[in-house]
């Protein structure tokens, strides 16, 4: 699809179209910032409601989990789950809207390679995920005293989680030709995997079969890694989680890059 552009202008001599990539990334960021009350404040309110509901439902009867109060244990899981959902939504809704609206050609026609398109879209997902993470983390530290034992680990897993989920959002949008198909993928795949990944509990409390399932779920390692970065304890080794999430990210990014390169299902 981009072969005719590859030998022209900025493609000459293998140059990178930095301006085009930056423009696409900027568009993706402005796209969610223009509706910040939905894309940033909405997740903050939802995360606060989760914590409030659990506080009311469980109250002081729930003992410590992993050596910390239950609400402190819960906060990084809810924050990461929210990051996952928003990073996925950013790329999936952008591409799906363009496909359904018939203006995806406006993105495909400029002299952008598959890699540059991928970087532009993922940049938007990462920006949205990171902003949501910062806002919710600040709120959790302020209201419930959530610690930050290993901030670098937390940052790495939020970043990798946003990249992986942004890529998965692109996968979903490539396959979805209608918004209800995209909603089905989100409701029946992404949300269950996020909820069943240790968001609200330690997987040590699960039966052996479900523990095995959790260890095959990459979302578990994202949430567990962020939890290690915040409260300093986790269900699995953060190094193992780093390897698993990095591997999954590379695989999904490679698949999406190939689809962008060939134009696979990019038009509704």
Automatic annotation (TrEMBL):
Membrane-topology annotation of the record: Multi-pass membrane protein
InterPro entries (alphabetical): ABC-2_transport_permease, ABC2_TM, ABC2_TM_bact-type, ABC_2_transport
Sequence ranges assigned to domain ABC transmembrane type-2 in this UniProt record: 34-263
GO CC annotations on file: ATP-binding cassette (ABC) transporter complex
Key words of the record: Cell membrane, Membrane, Transmembrane, Transmembrane helix, Transport
Keyword Nucleotide-binding set for record: no
A GO molecular function held by the record: ABC-type transporter activity
Subcellular location(s) per record: Cell inner membrane; Membrane
Primary location group: membrane
Ranges that cross the membrane: 35-58, 70-89, 118-145, 151-175, 182-203, 239-260
Family per similarity comment: Belongs to the ABC-2 integral membrane protein family.
Protein name: Transport permease protein
Gene: yadH_1
